[in-house]
Amino acid sequence: MSLKDKLDLQRLPKHIAIIMDGNGRWAKERGQDRLYGHHEGVESVRNIVETCAELGIGYLTLYAFSTENWDRPVYEVNGIMELLVNTIRKEVNTLSKNNIRLNVIGDLDMLPAQAKQEMEEAIALTSHNTGLTLIMALSYSARWEIVNAAKKIAADAQKGILDPATVSADVFEKYLCTAGFPDPELMIRTSGECRISNFLLYQLAYAELYFTDTRWPDFRNENLYEAILNYQTRERRFGKTSEQIQQNEEIIS
Ligand code: IPE
Ligand code: IPE
Ligand code: MG
Fold this sequence. Notes:
253 residues; alpha/beta; Undecaprenyl pyrophosphate synthetase; 13% strand; binds 3-methylbut-3-enyl trihydrogen diphosphate; ditrans,polycis-undecaprenyl-diphosphate synthase [(2E,6E)-farnesyl-diphosphate specific] activity
Protein backbone atom coordinates (compact mmCIF):
# COMPACT_ATOMS: atom_id res chain seq x y z
CA MET A 1 0.00 0.00 0.00
CA SER A 2 1.24 3.47 -0.82
CA LEU A 3 1.58 5.95 2.03
CA LYS A 4 -0.53 8.21 -0.17
CA ASP A 5 -3.66 6.33 0.93
CA LYS A 6 -3.00 7.31 4.54
CA LEU A 7 -2.91 11.06 3.83
CA ASP A 8 -5.70 13.28 5.07
CA LEU A 9 -6.39 15.15 1.85
CA GLN A 10 -8.34 17.82 3.73
CA ARG A 11 -5.26 18.75 5.76
CA LEU A 12 -2.52 19.03 3.19
CA PRO A 13 -0.06 21.91 3.53
CA LYS A 14 -0.79 24.67 1.03
CA HIS A 15 2.89 25.44 0.67
CA ILE A 16 5.82 23.04 0.99
CA ALA A 17 9.42 24.27 0.93
CA ILE A 18 12.36 21.92 0.38
CA ILE A 19 16.10 22.27 0.91
CA MET A 20 17.29 19.78 -1.68
CA ASP A 21 20.52 18.69 -0.04
CA GLY A 22 22.92 15.77 -0.45
CA ASN A 23 23.59 15.58 -4.19
CA GLY A 24 27.36 15.77 -3.68
CA ARG A 25 27.49 13.08 -1.01
CA TRP A 26 25.15 10.84 -3.02
CA ALA A 27 27.56 11.01 -5.98
CA LYS A 28 30.66 10.57 -3.86
CA GLU A 29 29.19 7.45 -2.24
CA ARG A 30 29.00 6.03 -5.75
CA GLY A 31 32.55 7.03 -6.62
CA GLN A 32 31.25 9.71 -9.00
CA ASP A 33 31.77 13.39 -9.53
CA ARG A 34 29.53 15.81 -7.58
CA LEU A 35 27.91 16.97 -10.83
CA TYR A 36 26.54 13.46 -11.36
CA GLY A 37 24.62 13.96 -8.13
CA HIS A 38 23.17 17.24 -9.35
CA HIS A 39 22.07 15.57 -12.60
CA GLU A 40 20.38 12.75 -10.74
CA GLY A 41 18.76 15.31 -8.43
CA VAL A 42 16.79 16.65 -11.40
CA GLU A 43 14.89 13.33 -11.57
CA SER A 44 13.79 13.89 -7.94
CA VAL A 45 12.72 17.44 -8.80
CA ARG A 46 10.57 16.08 -11.63
CA ASN A 47 9.03 13.44 -9.40
CA ILE A 48 8.30 15.78 -6.49
CA VAL A 49 6.88 18.54 -8.69
CA GLU A 50 4.58 16.02 -10.38
CA THR A 51 3.54 14.55 -7.03
CA CYS A 52 2.72 17.98 -5.57
CA ALA A 53 0.72 18.89 -8.68
CA GLU A 54 -1.20 15.61 -8.43
CA LEU A 55 -1.97 16.12 -4.74
CA GLY A 56 -3.22 19.64 -5.40
CA ILE A 57 -0.56 21.37 -3.30
CA GLY A 58 -0.74 25.11 -4.03
CA TYR A 59 2.91 26.12 -3.73
CA LEU A 60 6.23 24.29 -3.79
CA THR A 61 9.46 26.17 -3.15
CA LEU A 62 12.70 24.38 -4.03
CA TYR A 63 16.04 25.67 -2.78
CA ALA A 64 18.23 24.99 -5.80
CA PHE A 65 21.16 27.37 -5.38
CA SER A 66 22.05 29.68 -2.51
CA THR A 67 23.92 32.98 -2.46
CA GLU A 68 26.65 31.09 -0.58
CA ASN A 69 26.83 28.38 -3.26
CA TRP A 70 28.57 30.90 -5.57
CA ASP A 71 31.68 30.20 -3.45
CA ARG A 72 31.85 26.57 -4.64
CA PRO A 73 34.51 25.51 -7.16
CA VAL A 74 33.98 27.20 -10.52
CA TYR A 75 33.50 23.93 -12.39
CA GLU A 76 30.66 22.92 -10.07
CA VAL A 77 28.97 26.33 -10.29
CA ASN A 78 29.22 26.26 -14.08
CA GLY A 79 27.92 22.69 -14.20
CA ILE A 80 24.90 23.59 -12.09
CA MET A 81 24.13 26.67 -14.23
CA GLU A 82 24.35 24.59 -17.40
CA LEU A 83 22.08 21.97 -15.88
CA LEU A 84 19.64 24.70 -14.95
CA VAL A 85 19.43 26.07 -18.49
CA ASN A 86 19.04 22.60 -20.05
CA THR A 87 16.45 21.48 -17.53
CA ILE A 88 14.25 24.56 -17.92
CA ARG A 89 14.42 24.26 -21.68
CA LYS A 90 13.46 20.58 -21.57
CA GLU A 91 10.76 20.88 -18.93
CA VAL A 92 8.91 24.08 -19.77
CA ASN A 93 6.38 22.30 -22.00
CA THR A 94 5.69 19.66 -19.36
CA LEU A 95 5.15 22.43 -16.80
CA SER A 96 2.60 24.04 -19.09
CA LYS A 97 0.89 20.74 -19.84
CA ASN A 98 0.50 20.13 -16.11
CA ASN A 99 -0.87 23.67 -15.53
CA ILE A 100 2.17 24.56 -13.38
CA ARG A 101 3.16 28.19 -12.95
CA LEU A 102 6.89 28.75 -12.58
CA ASN A 103 8.30 31.49 -10.40
CA VAL A 104 11.68 32.38 -8.99
CA ILE A 105 13.01 34.01 -5.84
CA GLY A 106 16.57 35.24 -5.52
CA ASP A 107 19.02 37.58 -7.18
CA LEU A 108 18.45 36.73 -10.84
CA ASP A 109 20.96 39.39 -11.87
CA MET A 110 23.71 37.18 -10.47
CA LEU A 111 22.89 34.36 -12.91
CA PRO A 112 24.68 33.99 -16.25
CA ALA A 113 22.74 35.97 -18.91
CA GLN A 114 21.46 32.83 -20.64
CA ALA A 115 20.19 31.22 -17.46
CA LYS A 116 18.42 34.44 -16.51
CA GLN A 117 16.83 34.69 -19.94
CA GLU A 118 15.64 31.04 -19.99
CA MET A 119 14.19 31.51 -16.55
CA GLU A 120 12.35 34.70 -17.44
CA GLU A 121 10.96 33.17 -20.63
CA ALA A 122 9.72 30.08 -18.79
CA ILE A 123 8.11 32.28 -16.11
CA ALA A 124 6.33 34.35 -18.77
CA LEU A 125 5.24 31.25 -20.69
CA THR A 126 3.68 29.60 -17.64
CA SER A 127 2.34 32.75 -16.00
CA HIS A 128 -1.31 32.03 -16.90
CA ASN A 129 -1.33 28.53 -15.43
CA THR A 130 -3.57 28.07 -12.44
CA GLY A 131 -2.35 24.81 -10.83
CA LEU A 132 0.74 24.35 -8.69
CA THR A 133 3.02 27.38 -8.31
CA LEU A 134 6.59 26.11 -8.47
CA ILE A 135 9.01 28.61 -6.91
CA MET A 136 12.69 28.03 -7.59
CA ALA A 137 15.05 29.67 -5.07
CA LEU A 138 18.06 30.59 -7.18
CA SER A 139 20.97 32.68 -6.01
CA TYR A 140 18.74 33.10 -2.99
CA SER A 141 19.48 33.70 0.64
CA ALA A 142 17.12 34.99 3.29
CA ARG A 143 19.53 37.61 4.60
CA TRP A 144 19.99 38.97 1.09
CA GLU A 145 16.21 39.06 0.68
CA ILE A 146 15.53 40.79 4.00
CA VAL A 147 18.31 43.36 3.56
CA ASN A 148 17.06 44.00 0.04
CA ALA A 149 13.53 44.53 1.36
CA ALA A 150 14.84 47.00 3.95
CA LYS A 151 16.69 48.90 1.21
CA LYS A 152 13.58 49.12 -0.99
CA ILE A 153 11.49 50.29 1.97
CA ALA A 154 14.05 52.98 2.81
CA ALA A 155 14.13 54.11 -0.83
CA ASP A 156 10.32 54.31 -1.02
CA ALA A 157 10.23 56.24 2.25
CA GLN A 158 12.81 58.67 0.91
CA LYS A 159 10.80 59.16 -2.29
CA GLY A 160 7.71 59.86 -0.19
CA ILE A 161 5.85 56.81 -1.58
CA LEU A 162 5.77 55.13 1.82
CA ASP A 163 5.15 56.53 5.29
CA PRO A 164 7.56 54.68 7.66
CA ALA A 165 4.90 54.82 10.38
CA THR A 166 2.67 52.53 8.28
CA VAL A 167 5.24 49.74 7.91
CA SER A 168 3.56 46.65 9.38
CA ALA A 169 4.28 42.95 8.86
CA ASP A 170 1.81 43.02 5.94
CA VAL A 171 3.58 45.95 4.31
CA PHE A 172 7.04 44.48 4.95
CA GLU A 173 6.03 41.19 3.32
CA LYS A 174 5.15 43.01 0.11
CA TYR A 175 8.84 43.89 -0.22
CA LEU A 176 10.02 40.28 0.11
CA CYS A 177 10.58 38.06 -2.95
CA THR A 178 7.69 35.91 -1.75
CA ALA A 179 5.09 38.70 -1.87
CA GLY A 180 1.74 37.16 -2.70
CA PHE A 181 2.70 33.62 -1.67
CA PRO A 182 1.48 32.12 1.59
CA ASP A 183 4.13 31.08 4.15
CA PRO A 184 5.27 27.45 3.92
CA GLU A 185 3.59 25.22 6.49
CA LEU A 186 6.07 22.39 5.97
CA MET A 187 9.81 22.68 5.38
CA ILE A 188 11.71 19.55 4.42
CA ARG A 189 15.48 19.19 4.35
CA THR A 190 17.06 16.06 2.93
CA SER A 191 20.40 14.42 3.68
CA GLY A 192 20.67 14.68 7.44
CA GLU A 193 21.67 18.26 8.13
CA CYS A 194 19.41 19.95 10.69
CA ARG A 195 19.88 23.57 9.74
CA ILE A 196 18.14 26.23 7.69
CA SER A 197 21.19 27.48 5.72
CA ASN A 198 19.78 30.95 5.07
CA PHE A 199 16.49 29.72 3.58
CA LEU A 200 13.23 31.71 4.00
CA LEU A 201 14.16 32.89 7.51
CA TYR A 202 11.20 35.28 7.66
CA GLN A 203 8.62 33.00 6.04
CA LEU A 204 9.47 29.87 8.04
CA ALA A 205 8.58 31.55 11.34
CA TYR A 206 5.83 28.99 12.06
CA ALA A 207 6.65 26.21 9.60
CA GLU A 208 6.82 22.61 10.73
CA LEU A 209 10.36 21.37 10.09
CA TYR A 210 11.04 17.86 8.81
CA PHE A 211 14.54 16.47 8.45
CA THR A 212 15.32 13.19 6.74
CA ASP A 213 18.59 11.33 6.12
CA THR A 214 17.50 10.44 2.58
CA ARG A 215 19.77 12.13 0.05
CA TRP A 216 18.01 14.37 -2.45
CA PRO A 217 18.62 12.11 -5.52
CA ASP A 218 16.87 9.28 -3.61
CA PHE A 219 13.92 11.43 -2.46
CA ARG A 220 10.71 10.46 -4.30
CA ASN A 221 6.92 10.56 -3.88
CA GLU A 222 6.77 8.00 -1.04
CA ASN A 223 9.32 10.07 0.93
CA LEU A 224 7.15 13.13 0.40
CA TYR A 225 4.02 11.31 1.58
CA GLU A 226 5.96 10.25 4.68
CA ALA A 227 6.91 13.88 5.37
CA ILE A 228 3.32 15.06 4.92
CA LEU A 229 2.02 12.26 7.16
CA ASN A 230 4.48 13.35 9.83
CA TYR A 231 3.30 16.96 9.36
CA GLN A 232 -0.28 15.82 9.85
CA THR A 233 0.56 14.43 13.31
CA ARG A 234 1.74 17.85 14.52
CA GLU A 235 -0.43 20.25 16.46
CA ARG A 236 0.12 23.76 15.15
CA ARG A 237 -0.47 26.03 18.10
CA PHE A 238 0.86 29.44 16.99
CA GLY A 239 1.52 30.44 20.59
CA LYS A 240 -1.88 29.30 21.87
CA THR A 241 -2.64 26.37 24.18
CA SER A 242 -3.58 22.91 23.01
CA GLU A 243 -7.06 23.37 24.55
CA GLN A 244 -7.67 26.53 22.57
CA ILE A 245 -6.69 24.80 19.33
CA GLN A 246 -8.96 21.82 20.02
CA GLN A 247 -11.89 24.06 20.94
CA ASN A 248 -11.43 25.95 17.71
CA GLU A 249 -11.38 22.72 15.70
CA GLU A 250 -14.62 21.61 17.35
CA ILE A 251 -16.28 24.88 16.40
CA ILE A 252 -15.14 24.53 12.78
CA SER A 253 -16.28 20.89 12.48
C1 IPE B 1 22.51 20.29 -2.78
O1 IPE B 1 23.43 19.26 -2.69
C2 IPE B 1 22.58 21.05 -4.08
C3 IPE B 1 23.17 22.39 -3.97
C4 IPE B 1 23.52 22.98 -2.86
C5 IPE B 1 23.38 23.10 -5.21
P1 IPE B 1 24.93 19.51 -2.24
O2 IPE B 1 25.73 19.81 -3.45
O3 IPE B 1 24.99 20.51 -1.16
O4 IPE B 1 25.31 18.08 -1.68
P2 IPE B 1 26.19 17.77 -0.39
O5 IPE B 1 25.55 18.47 0.76
O6 IPE B 1 27.57 18.29 -0.65
O7 IPE B 1 26.13 16.29 -0.26
C1 IPE C 1 21.69 24.58 1.09
O1 IPE C 1 22.56 23.51 0.94
C2 IPE C 1 21.43 25.22 -0.23
C3 IPE C 1 20.75 24.40 -1.23
C4 IPE C 1 20.27 23.20 -1.06
C5 IPE C 1 20.59 25.00 -2.51
P1 IPE C 1 24.12 23.65 1.23
O2 IPE C 1 24.70 22.30 1.03
O3 IPE C 1 24.70 24.76 0.45
O4 IPE C 1 24.12 24.05 2.78
P2 IPE C 1 25.27 23.95 3.88
O5 IPE C 1 26.46 24.62 3.30
O6 IPE C 1 25.53 22.50 4.13
O7 IPE C 1 24.71 24.64 5.09
MG1 MG D 1 24.91 20.38 0.86
